[in-house]
Design brief:
Strand 1 (about 105-110) and strand 2 (about 115) form a beta hairpin. The chain has about 190 residues and is of the alpha+beta class. It has a four-stranded mixed beta sheet with strand order 2-1-3-4. The protein has six helices and four strands; from the N terminus they run ααααββααββ.
């Protein structure tokens, strides 16, 4: 009888231990929110104010009323000095890049970077400046993706996922008439 109790006790402990799992997941939704905020900050015009809520439901949600997610959320840290510096550099560069987007000379590719699309639309001097701006922007974007992974202890293997999420944000938040590369590699006007 004692042997049966010991076996049952060991099985019970084994069963409880087997049910405890640690779920380590990539916080895609939180990274998406961070990406959207950074893209909005980089492309925001100086002096631009945020849009007011458009409905009564949105006003109530701001105060915590209404349907709220019932799970713990990870806060993605995008306020480190390195991230702020990269974001500021991109924000300061954007007024020089905007005319290139408007002309169709550059576009947002599907890897979270910008790419020279139509060099023929630019003079030799403009092409040289565009290439310099593209190199600086892509260097800062690559550094940003790595810094976000490092600041949030997501590991270097998560940089590819961060890059993909940012690629979607850059493309979705592009203005109408700008060129974006779809996931299959084809270019489309937004």
């Amino acid at each position: 009888m004692r042997a049966i109790c010991k076996v049952c006790g060991c099985l019970a402990i084994l069963f409880v231990a087997a049910c405890v799992t640690v779920n380590v997941y990539f916080p895609a939704a939180e990274v998406q929110k961070a990406a959207d905020k950074i893209v909005d900050d980089v492309r925001k015009k100086t002096g631009e104010t945020p849009a007011a809520p458009s409905s009564g439901v949105e006003i109530w949600k701001r105060f915590g009323f209404g349907v709220q997610p019932a799970y713990a959320q990870m806060n993605i840290d995008i306020s480190t000095p390195a991230i702020r510096g990269l974001k500021d550099a991109m924000k300061n560069r954007f007024p020089q890049l905007k005319p290139l987007y408007d002309q169709g000379a550059v576009g947002e590719n599907n890897n979270g970077l910008i790419e020279l699309r139509d060099a023929a639309a630019l003079s030799l001097a403009q092409r040289s400046q565009a290439n310099r701006l593209i190199d600086q922007e892509n260097s800062d974007r690559n550094a940003l993706y790595g810094e976000i992974a490092q600041a949030n202890k997501l590991g270097p293997e998560s940089v590819a996922q961060i890059r993909k999420i940012f690629a979607n944000s850059w493309r979705e938040k592009s203005q109408a008439g700008w060129w974006v590369q779809n996931d299959r590699g084809g270019w489309e006007k937004k």
